[in-house]
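Structure first, sequence second, as always.
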């Protein structure tokens, strides 16, 4: 590994607290049980996009209430979102705090290999207050109905996620946010509690008035994806806290 790259990583890691510190310091504000989650008092609105959205009008999204966005960067070690640079830079120019996510394919290669590919192709992080920590999107296999957990048992899946996380932390100084559903986490990790202490949770639960029971020992959620459609491009999300907490979370405080 080149010496300059090691030095750069060391500088990034210096003075950076674990991502969980910010997540655990969240106020715990929950979306109101009555009415639409998007109108809840407290949590900030945001969205996530991929190549499906192509050319996203981020200034319009911000005018419509978005304050953050996650953008798909990579999948496995063979795919990079062809619109990623345009989307990622466009979100920043529009004044959105933005981050990148990786779609996991545990049946294709190791967690460490996919994490390295992700960081090299958009999943890096800087403590500039505008960059959210890298996120791992891990959910049911959309390509194979016979192997929804990618052919891995609970222990191997937990090991795969840990391998991905360790490489991301080594490369960027941050533990990744984990995007998942409670159902997938139970089915494919045995409801493992191995990540709750030091990984922010991005929980997906659509069409409900609250995020529901959280998986794997997590005490609170950091992001909640509550719908696939709404007023913002792509999927609809909330951040569990006020604007100053989102900025602090981005910085790693």
């Amino acid at each position: 590994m080149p010496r300059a790259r090691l030095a750069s990583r060391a500088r990034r890691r210096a003075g950076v607290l674990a991502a969980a510190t910010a997540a655990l310091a969240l106020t715990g504000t929950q979306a109101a049980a009555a009415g639409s989650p998007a109108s809840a008092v407290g949590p900030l609105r945001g969205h996530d996009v991929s190549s499906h959205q192509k050319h996203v009008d981020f200034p319009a999204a911000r005018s419509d209430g978005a304050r953050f966005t996650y953008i798909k960067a990579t999948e496995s070690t063979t795919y990079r979102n062809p619109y990623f640079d345009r989307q990622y830079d466009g979100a920043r120019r529009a004044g959105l705090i933005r981050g990148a996510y990786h779609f996991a394919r545990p049946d294709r290669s190791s967690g460490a290999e996919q994490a390295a590919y992700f960081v090299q192709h958009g999943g890096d992080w800087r403590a500039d207050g505008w960059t959210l920590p890298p996120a791992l999107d891990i959910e049911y296999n959309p390509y194979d109905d016979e192997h929804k957990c990618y052919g891995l048992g609970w222990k191997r899946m937990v090991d795969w996620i840990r391998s991905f996380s360790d490489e991301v932390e080594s490369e960027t100084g941050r533990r990744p946010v984990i995007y998942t559903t409670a159902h997938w986490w139970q089915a494919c990790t045995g409801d493992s509690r191995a990540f709750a202490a030091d990984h922010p949770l991005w929980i997906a639960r659509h069409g409900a008035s609250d995020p529901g029971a959280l998986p794997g020992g997590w005490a609170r959620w950091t992001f909640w994806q509550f719908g696939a459609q709404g007023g913002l491009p792509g999927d609809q999300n909330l951040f569990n806290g006020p604007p100053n907490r989102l900025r602090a979370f981005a910085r790693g405080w």
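Margin note: DSSP finds eight helices and nine strands in the chain.
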